[in-house]
Structures are given as structure tokens and as C-alpha cells.
Amino acid sequence: MAKGLTAGELRVEDQDTLVTKLKEAKEELFNLRFQAATGQLESHGRLRAVRREIARIYTVMRERELGIVTVEKESIDG
């Protein structure tokens, strides 16, 4: 999963992509927690970063659900 996803980058993604990214982030978080429990985790900061990515994805999904922000499609100017 890409590091440093911003809310702006997530807002231009479609719903299926968001669900996929959420699944990947949750899998990564599980693996990081497992490594932490077994004493193999080298970067504890990555735990925090992945939790924040998950929160951002949930925030964008909720914004769409409430109609606060709509999906912006990029127009091709020719």
C-alpha cells in the first residue's frame, strides 16, 4: 500500500478502489500488530500511519454517504 495517502487523493477514487485500499490497509495493520506481539516489529511509527490511513478512508466513505463531498471526475479537455 502506498505511504502517505491524503484525503484529497482518496476523494478522487471510486468506491470499489476505496474498499480495496481499506482491505489492504486492514491486512497490513493485522500483520504489523502480529509483528509487534512477537517482537519482530522494527518501525512502530508505521502502526500509527496505517491506522490513520484507515481513518482517512472511512472518513471519505462517510462523507460520500452523507452527501458532504461528491466524487469528482477529471474532465479531459481537448
UniProtKB/TrEMBL annotation:
<dbReference type="GO" id="GO:0005840">
    <property type="term" value="C:ribosome"/>
</dbReference>
<protein>
    <recommendedName>
        <fullName>Large ribosomal subunit protein uL29</fullName>
    </recommendedName>
</protein>
<comment type="similarity">
    <text>Belongs to the universal ribosomal protein uL29 family.</text>
</comment>
<keyword id="KW-0687">Ribonucleoprotein</keyword>
<keyword id="KW-0689">Ribosomal protein</keyword>
<dbReference type="InterPro" id="IPR050063">
    <property type="entry name" value="Ribosomal_protein_uL29"/>
</dbReference>
<dbReference type="InterPro" id="IPR001854">
    <property type="entry name" value="Ribosomal_uL29"/>
</dbReference>
<dbReference type="InterPro" id="IPR018254">
    <property type="entry name" value="Ribosomal_uL29_CS"/>
</dbReference>
<dbReference type="Pfam" id="PF00831">
    <property type="entry name" value="Ribosomal_L29"/>
</dbReference>
<dbReference type="InterPro" id="IPR036049">
    <property type="entry name" value="Ribosomal_uL29_sf"/>
</dbReference>
